[in-house]
Every structure is written in C-alpha cells, then in structure tokens.
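Contributing: when you submit paired examples, paste them exactly as shown. First protein:
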Amino acid sequence: MSSLIVFLPPGAPTGTTEWAYASTTDGHALADHGRSPAALLPLPRGAGAEVVAVVPVQAVAWHRVELPKGIAPGTPRLRAALEGLLEEQLLDDTDSVHLALQPGVRGGDTAWVAVCDRAWLREALQALEAAGRPATRIVPEFAPEGSLSLTAIGEPEQATIVASSADGVLALPLSAATLPLLPAPPEDAPRLAEPAVAALAEQLLPQPWVLQQAAQRWLQSARSRWDLAQFEFASSSRARAMKKIATGWSELLRSPEWRPARWAAVLLLAVHLAGLNAWAWKENASLADKREAVQRILRETFPNVRVIVDAPVQMEREVAALRQQTGTASPRDLDALLAALAAALPPGRAPSAFDYANGQLRASGLALSPDELRTVAAQLRPLGYAATADGAALVLAAEDVR
C-alpha cells in the first residue's frame, strides 16, 4: 500500500511552510523522507494509496473516560457525551477542541479520548487539501497502546522523552530534573532515540538505546488502529468503507504476513482449474461416445448413408422416405393431425377452416379460451403433438423429439 505520511507542523501553516514527510510503497518499508512545501510533497500511487496526517505528540492531550451505556462510535450523541465527560478536565472550552474516541470501544467501557486544538488541525488539513494532498487518515504520533516504551525525540536544545503504553502517553523534557516523573520501565522495555539526542539519552539514562529516525517512527504511527478523523473531520461513510476495502486488499496482495495465504489461494485455484479441466475432458469424452453411438445406429440401420453430417436429421429423412415407400402414415400427415385434433377439442367445437403445410395444421375459427387452450395442449402432448395459439387460430404440429 503506497502511503504519504505527513507530519503536521506545530504552528499554523503558511505558503512557505516546509512539511516533514515519509513515504512507503508497501506500508512497511520506508521508501523516502524529507521536507518539502505542501504542493511539492510526493503523491502516493496505486490501489489503496493514501495520505496519512501525523499529529505531533506535543499537540495531543489524552484523557480517560468511562463511556455511558448505549454510547459508542457512530452514536449521534457521542460528541455531546464526550464533552460532558471532559468538561471539568479540559483547560479550553469544549467548542475549541477536537475530540477523538479510542477505536473498538463500546458503551460501558473505559476508553481513551484524544484532544487537540480544532482550529489548528482544521488549518493544517485545509492546507494539505489545497495542495492536492487531502488526508485520508489522521493518526497520533504516539498512542496509549501496547507495552511501555521510551522514545527520545527532537534536538539537543529541545529534547523530549516520551513514555507510551496502554496506560497513557507522557511527554517530558529530556533532562535530569524530569526523569523521576517517568514510569519505571522494565529492563527489556524498548528504548528508542533519534540520532540527534541519542547521546543525551544515554548520558541521562545509561541503558542501550536503539537509533530510530523520526520518519521510521511516523511509519509505525501510520499503522496504528487510531484514526482521529472523527466528527467534523470524518470522511463520508462510503469513502471510508471503500478506503478500508482498498487498504485491506492491498495488504492482502503485498504484506509479507499474508504470503502463506496468497500461496494457499494460488494452490487452491490451481487444484480447481485442474479439476475443471478433468471434468470438461470427461464430459467431452462422454459426448463423443454418445455421438458415435448415434452415428453407428444410423450406419447399421441405413447402410446406404455414406457420409454422416447430422445423424438425427439424416435418420429422420431416411425414416420419412421409408414410410413413404411402405405407405405408413406419419404423425406429420394431414390425417394424423386431424385425428389428434378431433380427439382433443372440447365437445361442440369445430374449426371453420384448415390450412396444412410442411407438416403443420392451422385450424381457424375455434376461439378457444386460455383455459381451453391449456386443456387441449395437455391432451395433445402425450400423443406427441404441440398446440399453440396464433390469434383466433390453433396451430398443431408434431413435437420434435430430438
């Protein structure tokens, strides 16, 4: 899945703002990163391509609430309920902040709510949209999920250390004075640091630190389940559904985790194709055997037929010629058609005129009702005749048994 991941600037964007970005072609490996004006940001290509906006850790506040029963994502009263729950915890007026609820929660659950400045977020998203890079998802740089990890980010003059886990996100200046405020991490807790502040992190916290570029962290953020595009920033439900389908399909086609499933699907398809070919071969062989049997009967019955083109038609012609030679009546003869019609007509009904041609009898003046026509046709069918209405006339002909 091709993605452009844009790190939103902390201040209001202008025409000269350079946006930090990262790009990926498969959703897992970093393809490119850098800084660029919004109009020059690379465009993602291909199925499931998307633009993901990353909200800086300093721009998001996290609050934990207990959702009332009956309140869940998609509920019309969700925004009002969150405002009521957070009214006393927020420093700003509820109308000036944007709220986003933790994914996958239900009424009665304890859930995290992300809070950020609404006007700032709107300006940043509008700037991207004006540059032809509208954001399809909005994710936090750090989210309250997973086990505890420490990440040192920024520049040496303004270094920040972030502790994130399912218990919350805490961002503090990276200094000796703030270290006691950090939760005590276990020995195996991940410790990541941007190259610019790695030495400072090792000096203050003498533990092994793994180097991680900011772009690599944003790529991980883009894979988060969180999406802050809620309420007024939410896409239409249809667009979001189509995006999820496209993203899921792209993951299925490209993700290494799905490689065994892809091989299994290819193997299953190959087995089905082999089975279909075997079934088709068997049906063709059976059809050829039946065709050969019909031709053999024609040759044995009428040895004078030298060339066989259409065995049923040729056999019918030979039988008709033999019938004429012996004087045997045919179901297509006029007298046979008249006898069958007389036996099937309702009492007191007689045609006013007949027209016979090519083994077909047309009886006029009957004016049968639909029920009477069905009754006549039902009585003629066991005799080998088909009756149809043509206006006020009844058309009678021997059924083709081929």
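Second protein:
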Amino acid sequence: MTTRRNFLQQASLLTAGVLLVPSCVMAKANQNVGIQLYTLREQLPKDVQGVIGKVAKAGYKEVETYGYSKENGFWGLTPKEFSQLLKKNKLTTPSGHFGFDAYISGKDEDLQSYIEAAKAVDMKYIIVPYLGENLRQTAGDYRHVAQRLSKAAEECNAAGLTLAYHNHDFEFKNLGDTTGYDILLSETDPNLVKFELDLYWVVRAGLDPVKLFKENEGRFELWHVKDMDKSTPTINTEVGSGSINFKEIFNNAKVAGVKHILVEQENFSKDPFQSITQSYTYVKENLL
C-alpha cells in the first residue's frame, strides 16, 4: 500500500534524480573538443588564418599545435600573433607538440624557448610527441629518456606548465620483461610527468586503453581521439566510422583523468574539413 509518506519519499527521490541527471549530462556536454592541428598539416602552412577560422567553424574550441621553432614560430606567426589569431576565433591552445630529440640527447637549449612560447599563448602542457629511433633501442635507452623527461618536467613545473608524453605503438614493444612505456610510466613522477594517450596507437599495438587507465589512474590527462579504418587498420578515419569502441573508452574517462580531448586524423578519403566536422559532431553528440 502506498501511503502519503511513501509517495512523498518516492517523489522526492525522483525529483532529485531528475535534477541530478541533467546536471551530469550538462557537465559532460560542456567538455570542450579540441583538434591536433597536424591533422591539417597540408593546408595549415599555406593559409594559417583561413585554416584556424575553419577549425573554429567546425565547432572546435581548442587546438593543439605542432612544429614550433624559435626561428619560424607557429607557421610563420610569432607566439603573440598566433595568440591573437586564436582569440579572434574564440579558440584556446591547452597544449603543443615540441621536438625533444635534441633535448633527450643532452642539449638543453631548446626547452627554454618552448616554455616561453607556451606561456605566450597560454598553454598548460608541453608535449613530447615522438622519439627518434636511435633514442629507443633498449630498456636502458628508455630509462635515459625517463631521466631527461623528469628533468624537463621540473623546469616546466617551475614555469607553471606540465610536461606530457605522447605515444605511438613502438613504446609497447617488449624489451625483455618490460616495455618502453612501462619504463616511462614507472620511472617518472606521476605528479610531474603526465601522458597524452593516443588511443589509435594503443589499439594498434594490441592493447586495451581501459586496462591502461585502471593500471595507471589519473596519468592520462590528454587523449588523441582518432579511429581505426575497418578495412585497413594501418590507417585512420573519421571518429565513429572505424573499429575502435570509443563509447567504452569514454565511459572510463574519469579513471584516466582526462582533461583534454583532441581529435586527430592523418588519412583522408574526403575533404579534410568535412572529415574534422564529422568527427567533431560524433564526439560531441555520441561520446560526451
């Protein structure tokens, strides 16, 4: 029998649920979606202003840079000019990929210029995007990389920035009873060195991203979201069109500790601006 008291209690719970669910949905829906500008590497150097405008028009709120140099800046723009261009298009750049092979080899001089550029455009993360083959032959090589990353991370931290490492698939190859990635995770300070997990490369290496999240909670503050082509796994495609189970991955976002979601695509079968718009729409409408 439903008494008035029971009815009111049930109604109260239902009302609370109604209030709570939209707030959770809203919190997820407000997650900004970014793009790694390497996706548009063919177009960007020819027309920086136009490409940035089209990225904003596609819906993106954040961009991740690549290829900065002290001599050429960001595709010919100084950090100040690039910052102004982003503001004009209501974009921010939380992170950038900067070449670190020389630094890992023992040359410290580039790091300060990276820090200055990152600060000038209000970045929060400096990302190590790749390791040259000569730097990653043995477990000892990766231990050296971990030492250099730790040193760079201390300098970044002192400047109010965070260092993060972006993977491909080679880091997951066995080196005796360990892997390069295991070494980088275990021999760097979790409070100083974060990781930008490229989900495509993790899956291509035959691993489960969710398992990585659970084994290393909170380390993966940035994600590269790019899908694996169903017929040709060695190339990627628009997010939602391939074979990666992004819904399961995004359901475990809290465990990963992700703060920035960045779409990336390197292979195209249609106009790249159509592709990035399609990926943005899928992520925003189906994953957040």
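If you have annotations for the second protein, write them as plain sentences, like these:
The domain at 33-287 is CATH 3.20.20.150 (TIM Barrel).
Residues 86 and 92 are 6 Å apart (CA to CA).
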